[in-house]
Amino acid sequence: MSDAMQAETISIAGHRGEEIEAYLARPLGEGTHPGVVVIHHMPGYDRATKEIARTFAVYGYAALCPNLFHRYAPGAKSADAAAAARAAGGVPDEQCYGDVSGAISHLRGLSDANGKVGVIGYCSGGRQTYLVACTLNVDAAVDCYGGGVVVSADQLTPERPVAPIDLTPKLGCPLLGLFGAQDANPSPEHVARMEAELTANGKNFEFHSYEGAGHAFFSVDRPSYNLEAAKDGWQRIWAFFGTHLAS
Amino acid sequence: MCTYLTSTEPVAGSALGRDGWFTLGQSVVYFDHPQEAAAEHALCIDFRPLDASDASRRVAVELDAASARALAAQILATLDHEEVRALTQA
């Protein structure tokens, strides 16, 4: 089996057809490959997120990470783009849908696509993954410690006008949730509320909460990295996507 | 967790950035995941120019919460000093 891959920044059509940059890592082995949209965390479209995309390629997935901050600072370094997006009030959910939708279309259009596309997001990207899974046509979704899924009405803003948990009846694909039991948002209470809502709506989901882990336990370049949670979490991801994104 | 908490204020002054001094237009303050500081969260401040067309033209700091509080107190103590009050009261 070939371990060759191609990884590079490309341009895709995002929200309203606007060109945004995205990082594509794809295996070069023979046969068809599922696609995975990787939604970056709040610190942005950074080196660590690109490394995650390459990891998916190692495991046989074409991974595409759209730079959700691109239009705030085209061509800028990821930290500067993240700061510019923050100063502008953050990424509106509607714009995120458009950019992720563009990434899904790009993956489905690859010559070696198997037609299945999953989505995974970390931190703020976990919340966006929940929204995407309830709104767009994807085959499987992984929410990694997305805070802000369970929010009260007074936390809604023009950019984030809907509580993601209220969209649960519209969830259209299997959902894997990976959380740290020591996280404050999503807290264990938030996760329990999500589980209750998903169960009440008869959804196909699988949640794992890791004792001793907090937020961002997959981040190898941050003090929050938790080896045991990250190792088990990756195994859950391979099993989950392996089941739901296979040809 | 991502706090999403962000406050922006217009500011007047100058900042020394990578390519020299620039005229300030805005400060952005938030407490969230830092880019560089070895902490899960930090009090982050971005000093941005009046002309924000170049995203790299900024001065950024990421402080732990205790340092940020000490800095805020230090600034206020300086501004509240008798000699400074005399200079800043129009």
In short:
Chain A is 33% helix and 23% strand. By secondary structure, chain A is an alpha/beta fold.
What would the CATH topology of chain A be? Rossmann fold
CATH superfamily of chain A: Alpha/Beta hydrolase fold, catalytic domain
Overall pLDDT confidence of chain B: 93
Q: What string gives the helices and strands of chain B in order?
A: EEEEEHH
- Mean pLDDT of chain A, nearest integer? 97
| Helical fraction of chain A | 25-40%
Tell me, what is the CATH class of chain A?
Alpha Beta
What level of helicity do the residues of chain B show?
A: 25-40%
Shape of chain B: globular
Give a short account of the largest sheet of chain A.
8 strands, mixed
N→C terminal distance of chain A: 18 Å
- Judging from the principal axes of the Cα atoms, what is the shape of chain A? globular
Q: Name the beta content range of chain A.
A: 15-25%
- Return the structural class of chain A: alpha/beta
Counting DSSP E segments of at least 2 residues, the number of strands of chain A comes to 8
Topology of chain A as a string of helices (H) and strands (E):
EEEHEHHEHEEHEH
Report on the structure:
The complex is a heterodimer of chains A (247) and B (90). By secondary structure, chain A is an alpha/beta fold. Helices cover 33% and strands 23% of the residues of chain A. In chain A, helix 3 packs across helix 4. The model of chain A has no long low-confidence stretch (mean pLDDT 97). Chain B has a domain at 6-64. In chain B, strands 1, 2, 3, 4 and 5 form a 5-stranded antiparallel sheet that branches. Chain B contains 2 helices and 5 strands. Chain A binds chain B through residues 41-44, 46, 72-73, 76-77, 79-84, 86-87, 89-90, 123-124, 127, 147-148, 160, 183-186, 214-216, 222-224, and chain B through 1-4, 6, 8, 26, 28, 30, 32-36, 38-40, 46, 48, 52, 55-56, 58, 60.
